[in-house]
Amino acid sequence: MQPCDEGVILSSPAAAPCSAAAAPWILAATILGSSLAFIDGSVVNLALPAFQAELNEERAGTASGINNAVSRLAGVLSIATLGVLMLASFNHQFSFRLSEIDLEPRIRHEIDEQHVKLAAIEIPSGVDSPLRTQVQRAIDDSFVAGFRLVVFLASGLAALSAINAKLLIESKPKK
């Protein structure tokens, strides 16, 4: 099961996942991410005809194929890279937060074995309510820390891409 599966979302208790001070930043990151997803398709659809107009007919198909292949490869590599960074950040944060909770070694080991599940880690049934709350908070905070890192990196890469495009794409003089 993946962390964003419907069952995981529906099985979590409804609670405010962030502080009131963090809420505007969460909203801004969500809007930025959604905007990037929408812009990606429209940029390709607008830029590709411009590239094709600059090239002669026989190279237009080749340029389109190369553009598509590079775009898909970049998507796969970014998902893999950001996924590894998310997991590493989550594990680091979770280990630190879990070390501050007084758990039996057996229970700590059971929880540690599930670290790749990220936010879907299942707390063993033998954990009493106060400790269960602390462990769940450690899981939630660790996931948010990892997600925050990924969002900031993706935002930074998007900004660098915009700067790169501004500097490298020459504009034609107006006639």
Protein architecture, described:
By secondary structure, the protein is mainly α. The protein has one domain. It contains five helices and no strands. It is elongated, with a radius of gyration of 22 Å.
Distance between the termini: 58 Å
Shape: elongated
Number of helices: 5
Enumerate the spans where pLDDT stays under 50 for 5 or more consecutive residues.
Answer: none
The largest sheet is: none
β-strand percent reads under 5%
Radius of gyration: 22 Å
Helix content class: over 70%
Pairing-aware structural class of the strands and helices? mainly alpha
Total number of strands? 0
Q: What characteristics describe this protein?
A:
5 helices; mainly alpha; 175 residues; single chain; elongated
What's the short version?
With 175 residues, the protein is an all-alpha fold.
Task: Reconstruct the topology from this structure.
Layout: H1 6-11, H2 23-54, H3 57-99, H4 105-112, H5 129-168
Helix pairs in contact: 2-3, 2-5, 3-5
